[in-house]
Amino acid sequence: MNDMRIADRTVSSDTAKMTARGVQVYYGENHALKDVDIDILGGTVTAFIGPSGCGKSTFLRCLNRMNDTVSIARVLGEIKLDGEDIYDKSVDPVTLRARVGMVFQKPNPFPKSIYDNVAYGPKIHGLTKSKAELDQVVETSLKKAALWNEVKDRLHAPGTGLSGGQQQRLCIARAIATSPEVLLMDEPCSALDPIATAQVEELIDELRSQFSVVIVTHSMQQAARVSQRTAFFHLGHLVEYGETGQIFTNPQDPRTESYITGRIG
Ligand SMILES: Nc1ncnc2c1ncn2[C@@H]1O[C@H](COP(=O)(O)OP(=O)(O)OP(=O)(O)O)[C@@H](O)[C@H]1O
Q1: How far apart are CA 265 and CA 258, in angstroms?
Q2: Which BP terms in the Gene Ontology apply to this protein (predicted)?
């Protein structure tokens, strides 16, 4: 942990964008997540770290109700976005996922053109009124995802023809095209080479000026590079949550210390 570039630790907001209280997740009989309480801050990158199977992705997927799509998953407790219960019956999960977007581990562009990948969300949510407005959203999203210059002359070529790193930036552009308030990223760099990883990490830092980012990562170096807040999960428990520098240099719980020093993994 010595040669780490450290992210700017200042957070632009200390108000909670999302809050979770007493969250439990069961997959059938498997109690995967146990009594998780957390406040996700606005304008902040929050990293979820912990050993394989500790529940990081499960909790991430609770934040935009992706676990609704898993028939054996049961989510208990309360999760709020701007004070509103996202599991309330009146909340449409598809609309919620436009506000709380997601980028997955493997780049998964639709088998459509670069343009149509980005235009998809604004179209289905009726966010634009004209073709010119949609063109503008596509361009702005690709610019925010640092991909515009590489693709502006081939917007109608298939998204699947891009390199892995470009495909992941296309998926980020697709996720931000609906102007989400929170962006969830589940190990977004695990399929990328070091150069593409550095590009996506730089992007994450820029994106937090517009919304909260929550990133699951296996890499402690990555958590230290990109996040201002870190949550350490172990065996389904949220063991420790705090300022990233403090978690890595002065952990309060012996389990966190064991993990960051490599004694549990
Ligand atoms: N779709 C699913 N169906 C059944 N069990 C699941 C499912 N997804 C996760 N689990 C179980 O929930 C527990 C937590 O898994 P989860 O994927 O959330 O952990 P993780 O910390 O993200 O792991 P990794 O770092 O390996 O991705 C594990 O016991 C896992 O087997």
Answers
A1: 9
A2: phosphate ion transmembrane transport
Ligand 1 within 6 A of 121 CB?
no
**pLDDT bracket for residue 146 (50, 70, 90):** confident
Q: How confident is the model at residue 4 (pLDDT cuts 50, 70, 90)?
A: very low
Give the ligand 1 atom nearest the CA of 236: 14
Calpha distance 99→27 (Å, rounded):
26
Measured distance CA(88)–CA(99) in Å, rounded: 15
Q: Give the residue, out of 23, 57, 71, with the most ligand 1 atoms within 8 A of its beta carbon, to mutate for a pocket test.
A: 57
User: For 15-259, CATH number?
Assistant: 3.40.50.300
User: Where are the domains positioned within the chain?
Assistant: 15-259
Q: Is the pLDDT confidence value at 73 over 60?
A: yes
